[in-house]
């Protein structure tokens, strides 16, 4: 598999691992461990040894309800079935901080791709927001234009009170043809 193909597969895998939890884009410890090629317990152990590097806006542990919702969403599988504790969720900043904790060449390469995936996601969300704004503007513009058209149609449909109406049909001599 070529380097470009390998990077593409890794990028797709990373993008599928980014979840929205507590209104934040995060990656779970098990997904990160898999990407880094380490055991989840080894990743969490390294994080706990350096816990001062991971404040609440960098990493948080899912509560029981979030964990259950996640399990229901993805279905119970062997990768989820053996966990005793809810997973840790890492924000973009937390993932970046992991690079200072996990220093293997693979961890560095994976971290670079993860940062790129977060940037692509941000760009995609921004382009969607821009598209929504443009659509709103078009809607307002066309609402105004259609109002003008409908007003013109209504004026054409309304009888004009100033002019007497001509009689329609066959007229005999002596009748007022108006």
How many helices? The count is 7
Outline? rod-shaped
Instruction: Give the helix level as a range of percent.
Output: 55-70%
How would a crystallographer describe the biggest sheet? Answer: 4 strands, antiparallel
- What distance separates the N and C termini? 90 Å
Examine the secondary-structure arrangement and name the CATH architecture of the domain at 17-112. Answer: Roll
The strands making up the biggest β-sheet line up spatially as: 1-2-4-3
Low-confidence stretches: none
Report the C-alpha radius of gyration, rounded: 32 Å
CATH class label of the domain at 17-112: Alpha Beta
Tell me the strand percentage band: 5-15%
Quote the average pLDDT. Answer: 80
State the order of secondary-structure elements, H for helix, E for strand.
HEEHHEHHEHH
Number of strands: 4
Overall structural class, as computed from helix and strand content, comes to alpha+beta
In the CATH scheme, what's the topology name of the domain at 17-112? Answer: Mlu1-box Binding Protein, DNA-binding Domain
């Amino acid at each position: 598999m070529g380097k470009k193909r390998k990077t593409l597969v890794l990028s797709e895998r990373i993008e599928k691992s980014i979840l929205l939890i507590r209104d934040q884009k995060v990656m779970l410890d098990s997904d990160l461990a898999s990407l880094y090629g380490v055991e989840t317990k080894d990743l969490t152990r390294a994080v706990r040894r350096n816990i001062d590097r991971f404040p609440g806006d960098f990493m948080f542990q899912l509560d029981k309800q979030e964990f259950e919702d996640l399990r229901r969403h993805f279905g119970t599988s062997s990768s989820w079935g053996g966990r005793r504790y809810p997973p840790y969720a890492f924000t973009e900043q937390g993932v970046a901080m992991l690079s200072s904790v996990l220093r293997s060449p693979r961890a560095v390469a994976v971290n670079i791709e993860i940062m790129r995936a977060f940037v692509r996601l941000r760009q995609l969300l921004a382009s969607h927001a821009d598209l929504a704004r443009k659509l709103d503007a078009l809607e307002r513009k066309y609402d105004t234009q259609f109002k003008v058209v409908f007003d013109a149609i209504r004026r054409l449909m309304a009888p004009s009170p100033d002019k007497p109406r001509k009689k329609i049909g066959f007229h005999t001599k002596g009748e007022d043809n108006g």
